[in-house]
């Protein structure tokens, strides 16, 4: 028995109960007839008598008498048995536990049975079958006499005697329970043999702990299990696990040898000497001395280190070492020379004193325990302790013995203690809670010794241990912490200092985040010296290293000065470290990242991914490999397809299960587990899974499993190439959880963004995100690639059409426009001047359409080419696209409006003033003509420019393109996307509580202000541009086709309860349709009036006249037909789309680029007689020279213009508009000067141009 335990037993007051006497008593009556009660008035079975809760005397007073007065029921030590057993009685006997937490046969229930512990409560275990206390640690659950009622409840429900359960020190065992004796016994793993385990129990009965603390060691077993070659039978009863020195799995065992009582013992000391009892292995001090850990029960291995003594080396009846916890404890002295009591009794005048950790004295008056003051001696300072073993304690209750260490190797840091600068030992760093006293441990005045972090689940260290080049956590997570990303060592500059709580590493860099954070980290306080650092101006304090410049950052929404540099933003590593998920959540919402179902089970089966349906699926179990792992009770039962299915759109467990079961349709898919060659052993995944449970695999090696909340055990663990481990559901889920990409790199359900393919940190997206129209990669490679790379003009036919029609429109209309403006100077009549001016405007509008087509083709084929996709956001938000949109809209509307005005004027001249002789050009006619032109231009320009007015941006702006540095926003997110991002961000804010007011009703200005709140704007380097009205598509046309996801459609029409599209589009379509109807009606009227005039004048029998009329009718039909082909189909398609009968979004560009420009090419041929004659002669010459048949359209046009040429030399060349001569009877066409009234308004004798 160790020295400390013997000492503690000497001063203890608890009676040790022989476990063999812990039989369940058969008590029928718990009270005495003489009404005596209490612990001094026992029943025949030596248990304290109680009072009958149903009698007139239910309460026991402090003198041991039953009664019902206040003195019996309400005093401090009184017991009211009506209350004591109330829950048991109210529950009908189901509640079998007491409120005071005591348990065992000594504390019986009214029915005479032993009190139990609540099986699903916080303390389900009873520390003794006879006299115990409910708890949940090893002392209550795993001793030889302990009863785990959680296990008992499970066995009762199963109706079995044995089950697989977690046993002491986290080993799985076949644990059995005997209800009669309330004893735990075990079943061998590979046979039906049963065995009992006898444990040695040592008791710490210190008065301070108020309960027994136990340590257990295996003494013997009643049976040796067959086929247990590695002696797993003994695991769980001892502290150590043997490494590779022996085939025995767990350390500290006994050799197998038979004693006279037929009990078997194990002994395997492996290079160490046997202990004094010839059975226990003596601990090898050579391997464990001075490692700052108590490897022996007395901590003797840490008693003499670096030339300093800790504890007292003296001659005692227990040995030659006395730990510090025993110094000043025994007035008689444990040391034979009583050196352990020297200076203990007279502490007056001593500078260094403290309250002893657990020593108390009892006063004689009230028998109260009072604290004892003891001196702090040199050999009691900075001694190692380990409260987890419940054996070794510090010397002082307030831990003052852990300050002012003489041994520099034991100094953990420096701080002020009680106002004076002192050092503190490494043993109290991050020791913020004393589990024995259940109190906080505060040594430093500012509690700086507890400024600790947890880089991984099982590692907790002081923050000054981070990023110091020394691996302090088993998994090395302290050296890859987020703080280590930016250090004060960069580009030749290096700031170093000695950290206050890491004095072992002198003059090392520190994380930049520690600078000027109001916490002193360097011994010389240089990290908080403002004069030593360059700062950026602004709300967020950014430290500049040499060579760095101030940059804007992403602000963490906590009201504190926390930020994320743009180069670390949206990297799937949470940099806003106070609350997990803020940065990543904002980025995922901004990307519209698909919801990934990572967890697979029978309930959430693969049907959610449309992989299988109920009629074609079957339920199967997934097994990791062929290893036999004892205790795995949770099998992965999932619903899988009966035939192979595609795995390209499934993730996590779904992907892993199907791929490892060979059910993926893709041949290149392999099981991710096949790429991990490492065997999952008990020490795998260092630093992770602190609650791991050990078990045996293949009856040969130790592994571990995890326990679920339903007490099932599983091993769904994926081991990364860097030894880190993750859950199955984290494999192949588009996120690098391993840190070395070994959980993602072999998966075939993702796309790696191009700009990260050669980096150490890939950006993964799902295959479904490729070519879906939404940018997900920072470099846009998910949408800009060989499979779906966009161009402005999507196909070769459209490219050729735009070049051809654009060039023709520019040439034809340039000729017509310049000739028309030139002929205006020679026009002698007001009618011809008006006609020529309007025709020139038509040519100008159509010329702009040609210019638009040519410019668009230049950008498509020459400037951008296949790289347009990467510049699409810049293009759609840029001034070039805006200018082209204005030019195309203005040109088309100018041409249409002018043709409408011209047709009305012609019709008016024929119908209203047929007999008026045209007058000469006057100032009035010039003003009239100019006014018509200005009004027409203004109307067309208004339609083109109004959607660009800043005051209407909330209606017409479609989205915002941000500087790529933002990273949160990719592409050009619309208002709905902005609102989701802002709601997510401001939902975390502790200073702004208006996330509920963020909605699509906000203006763009308000949204931009909210976005500004997410970032610093101190440097002004971040830019953003609105995606203007013409940014609907790469062709930059007027937005006649409103997509279903367009904000204007959803915001304005759906709120009205009628989703019919955009009112603006309907208005413009109605205006254009009205213009077409006016033009058509006017020319129909002109045709009818011409025929009527011919009949009245008697010219209808003249063959030459008939030929002229047919030519005019043909031209009018061409005018109406071309206008119809250009506008009516377009108006109908747009209307059907906006009414949701069809979806024209995808072919809108192709349709508009081939249909609308037709008028721009044909109009100069129809309205310009000279140009028509020129082309006719050229075509006629080509026909004669080549003697080939022209196309049908060229033939019609040639014949048409050929007849026109004959008309010009005839007596009746044209039919005019207003230049009519009055006659007595109708209109005599022979006497009319028809050159002045041409329906096509060609140049005549008074303003002509010779094209020959």
Features:
single chain; 1252 residues; alpha+beta; 45 strands; 27% helix; elongated
Can you put this structure into words, describing what you see?
- The protein is an alpha+beta fold and 1252 residues long.
- Helix content is 27%, strand content 15%.
- The protein is built from 24 helices and 45 strands.
- Strands 7-6-9-8-10 form a five-stranded antiparallel β-sheet.
- Helix 20 packs across helix 24 (1192-1209) and helix 22 crosses helix 23.
- The radius of gyration is 48 Å and the shape is elongated.
- The protein starts with a helix and ends in a 43-residue tail after the last helix.
- The model is unreliable at 1-27, 203-214, 254-285, 602-609, 1047-1058, 1188-1194 and 1196-1252 (pLDDT under 50).
Q: Give the C-alpha Rg.
A: 48 Å
Structural class of the helix and strand makeup?
alpha+beta
Read across the widest sheet, the strand sequence of neighbours is 7-6-9-8-10
Mean pLDDT: 76
Profile the largest sheet.
Answer: 5 strands, antiparallel
Assess the beta-strand content as a share of residues.
5-15%
Secondary-structure blueprint of this entry?
Elements lengths: L2 H9 L26 E5 L5 E2 L9 E2 L5 E2 L2 H4 L5 E2 H4 L1 H5 L11 E7 L5 E2 L9 E2 L5 E4 L2 H4 L5 E2 H10 L3 E6 L3 E8 L4 E5 L6 E2 L1 E8 L8 E9 L32 E5 L5 E4 L17 H4 L15 E2 L2 E2 L43 E10 L6 E7 L35 E7 L2 E6 L7 E2 L4 E2 L11 E5 L2 E4 L26 E2 L2 E2 L39 E2 L7 E2 L9 E2 L7 E2 L17 H10 L25 E6 L13 E6 L10 H9 L32 E5 L3 E7 L5 E2 L2 E3 L5 E3 L22 E3 L11 E3 L29 H28 L6 H35 L7 H5 L2 H33 L11 H23 L7 H4 L2 E4 L12 H13 L16 H9 L11 E4 L19 H7 L9 H35 L5 H36 L9 H8 L2 H10 L1 H18 L5 H18 L43
Antiparallel strand pairs: 1-2, 3-4, 3-5, 6-7, 6-9, 8-9, 8-10, 11-12, 12-13, 13-14, 15-16, 17-18, 19-20, 21-22, 23-24, 25-26, 27-28, 29-30, 31-32, 33-34, 35-36, 37-38, 38-39, 40-41, 42-43, 44-45
């Amino acid at each position: 028995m160790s020295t400390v335990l013997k000492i503690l037993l000497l001063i203890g007051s608890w009676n040790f109960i022989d476990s063999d006497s812990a039989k369940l008593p058969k008590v029928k009556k718990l009270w005495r007839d003489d009404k005596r009660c209490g612990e001094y008035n026992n029943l025949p079975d030596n248990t304290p008598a109680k009072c009958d809760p149903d009698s007139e005397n239910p309460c026991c007073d402090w003198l041991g008498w039953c009664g019902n007065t206040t003195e019996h029921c309400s005093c401090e030590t009184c017991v009211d048995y009506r209350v004591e057993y109330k829950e048991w009685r109210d529950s009908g006997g189901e509640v079998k536990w007491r409120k005071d937490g005591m348990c065992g046969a000594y504390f019986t229930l009214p029915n005479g049975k032993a009190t139990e512990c609540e099986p699903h409560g916080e303390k389900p275990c009873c520390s003794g079958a006879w006299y115990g206390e409910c708890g949940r640690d090893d002392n209550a659950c795993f001793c030889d006499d302990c009863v785990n009622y959680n296990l008992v409840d499970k066995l009762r429900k199963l109706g079995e005697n044995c089950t697989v359960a977690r046993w002491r020190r986290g080993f799985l065992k076949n644990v059995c329970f005997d209800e009669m004796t309330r004893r735990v016994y075990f079943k061998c793993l590979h046979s039906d043999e049963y065995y009992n385990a006898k444990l040695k129990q040592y008791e710490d009965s210190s008065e301070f702990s108020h309960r027994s603390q136990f340590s257990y060691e295996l003494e013997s077993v009643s049976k040796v299990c067959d086929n247990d070659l590695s002696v797993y039978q003994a695991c769980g009863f001892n502290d150590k696990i043997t490494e590779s020195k022996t085939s025995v799995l767990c350390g500290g065992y006994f050799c197998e040898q038979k004693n006279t009582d037929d009990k078997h013992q194990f002994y395997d000391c492996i290079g160490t000497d046997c202990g004094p009892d010839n059975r226990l292995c003596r601990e090898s001090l050579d391997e464990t001395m001075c490692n700052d850990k108590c490897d022996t029960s007395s901590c003797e291995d840490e008693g003499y280190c670096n030339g300093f003594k800790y504890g007292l080396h003296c001659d005692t009846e227990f040995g030659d070492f006395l730990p510090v916890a025993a110094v000043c404890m025994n007035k008689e002295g444990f040391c034979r020379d009583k050196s352990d009591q020297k200076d203990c009794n007279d502490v007056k005048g001593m500078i260094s004193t403290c309250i002893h950790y657990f020593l108390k004295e009892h006063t004689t008056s009230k028998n109260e325990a009072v604290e004892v003051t003891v001196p702090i001696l040199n050999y009691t300072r900075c001694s190692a302790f380990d409260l987890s073993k419940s054996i070794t304690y510090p010397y002082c209750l307030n831990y003052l013995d852990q300050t002012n260490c003489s041994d520099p190797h034991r100094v953990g840091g420096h701080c002020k203690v009680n106002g004076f600068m002192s050092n503190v030992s490494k043993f109290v760093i991050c020791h913020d809670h004393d589990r024995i006293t259940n109190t906080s441990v505060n040594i430093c005045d500012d509690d700086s010794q507890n400024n600790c972090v947890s880089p991984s689940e099982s590692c907790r260290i002081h923050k000054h241990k981070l990023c110091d080049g020394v691996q302090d956590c088993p998994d090395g997570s302290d050296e890859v912490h987020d703080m280590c990303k930016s250090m004060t060592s960069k580009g030749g500059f290096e700031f170093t200092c000695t950290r206050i709580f890491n004095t072992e590493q002198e003059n090392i860099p520190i994380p930049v985040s520690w600078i000027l954070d109001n916490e002193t980290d360097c011994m010389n306080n240089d990290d908080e010296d403002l004069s030593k650092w360059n700062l950026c101006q602004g709300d967020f304090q950014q430290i500049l290293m040499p060579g760095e410049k101030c940059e804007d950052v992403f602000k963490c929404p906590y009201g504190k000065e926390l930020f994320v540099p743009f180069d670390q933003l949206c990297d799937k590593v949470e940099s806003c470290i106070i609350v997990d998920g803020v940065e990543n959540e904002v980025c995922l919402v901004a990307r519209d990242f698909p919801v990934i179902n990572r967890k697979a089970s029978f309930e959430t089966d693969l049907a959610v991914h449309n992989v299988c349906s109920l009629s074609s699926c079957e339920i199967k179990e997934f097994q990791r490999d062929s290893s036999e792992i004892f205790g795995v009770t949770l099998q992965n039962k999932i619903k899988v397809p009966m035939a192979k299915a595609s795995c390209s759109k499934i993730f996590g467990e779904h992907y892993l299960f199907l791929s490892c079961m060979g059910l993926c349709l893709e041949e290149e898919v392999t099981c991710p587990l096949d790429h991990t060659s490492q065997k999952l052993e008990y020490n795998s995944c260092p630093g992770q899974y602190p609650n791991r449970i050990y078990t045996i695999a293949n009856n040969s090696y130790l592994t571990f499993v995890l326990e679920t909340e339903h007490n099932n055990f599983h091993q769904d663990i994926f081991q990364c190439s860097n030894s880190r481990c993750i859950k199955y559901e984290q494999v192949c889920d588009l996120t690098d959880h391993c840190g070395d990409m070994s959980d993602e790199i072999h998966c075939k359900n993702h796309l790696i963004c191009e700009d990260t393919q050669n980096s150490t940190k890939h950006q993964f997206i799902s295959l479904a995100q490729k070519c879906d129209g939404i940018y997900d990669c920072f470099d846009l490679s998910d949408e800009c690639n060989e499979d779906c790379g966009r161009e402005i003009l999507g196909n070769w036919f459209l490219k050729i059409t735009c070049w051809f029609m654009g060039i023709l429109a520019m040439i034809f209309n340039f000729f017509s426009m310049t000739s028309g403006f030139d002929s205006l100077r020679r026009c002698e009549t007001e009618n011809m001047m008006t006609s020529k001016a309007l025709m020139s405007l038509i040519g100008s509008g159509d010329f702009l359409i040609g210019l638009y087509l040519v410019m668009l083709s230049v950008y498509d084929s020459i400037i951008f080419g296949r790289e347009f996709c990467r510049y699409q956001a810049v293009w759609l938000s840029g001034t070039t696209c805006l200018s082209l949109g204005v030019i195309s809209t203005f040109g088309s509307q100018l041409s249409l409006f002018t043709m409408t005005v011209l047709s009305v004027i012609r019709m008016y001249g024929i119908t209203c003033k047929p007999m008026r002789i045209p007058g000469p050009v006057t100032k009035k006619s010039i003003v009239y003509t100019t006014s018509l032109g200005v009004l027409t231009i203004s109307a067309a320009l208004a339609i083109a420019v109004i959607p660009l007015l800043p005051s209407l941006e909330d209606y017409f702006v479609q989205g915002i393109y941000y500087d790529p540095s933002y990273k949160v926003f990719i592409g050009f997110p619309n208002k709905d996307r902005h609102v989701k991002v802002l709601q997510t961000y401001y939902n975390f804010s502790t200073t702004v509580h208006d996330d509920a007011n963020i909605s699509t009703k906000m203006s763009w200005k308000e949204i931009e202000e909210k976005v500004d709140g997410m970032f610093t704007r101190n440097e002004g380097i971040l830019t953003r541009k609105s995606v203007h009205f013409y940014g609907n598509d790469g062709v930059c046309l007027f937005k006649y086709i409103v997509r279903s996801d367009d904000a204007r459609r959803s915001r304005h029409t759906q709120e009205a309860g009628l989703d019919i599209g955009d009112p603006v589009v309907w208005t413009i379509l109605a205006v254009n349709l009205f213009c077409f109807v006016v033009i058509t009606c006017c020319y129909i009227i002109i045709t009818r009036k011409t025929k009527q005039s011919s009949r009245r004048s008697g010219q209808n029998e003249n063959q030459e006249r008939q030929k002229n009329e047919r030519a005019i009718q043909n031209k009018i039909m061409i005018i109406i037909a071309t206008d119809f082909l250009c506008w009516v189909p377009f108006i109908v398609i747009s209307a059907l789309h906006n009414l949701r009968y069809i979806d024209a979004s995808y072919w809108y560009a192709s349709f508009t680029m081939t249909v609308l420009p037709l008028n721009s090419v044909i109009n100069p041929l129809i309205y310009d007689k000279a140009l028509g004659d020129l082309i006719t002669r050229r075509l006629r010459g080509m026909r004669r020279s080549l003697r080939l048949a022209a196309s049908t359209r060229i033939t019609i046009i040639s014949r048409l213009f050929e007849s026109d040429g004959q008309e010009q030399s005839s007596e009746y060349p044209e039919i005019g508009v207003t230049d009519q001569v009055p006659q007595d009877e109708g209109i005599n066409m022979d006497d009319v000067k028809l050159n002045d009234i041409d329906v096509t308004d060609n140049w005549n004798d008074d303003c002509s141009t010779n094209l020959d």
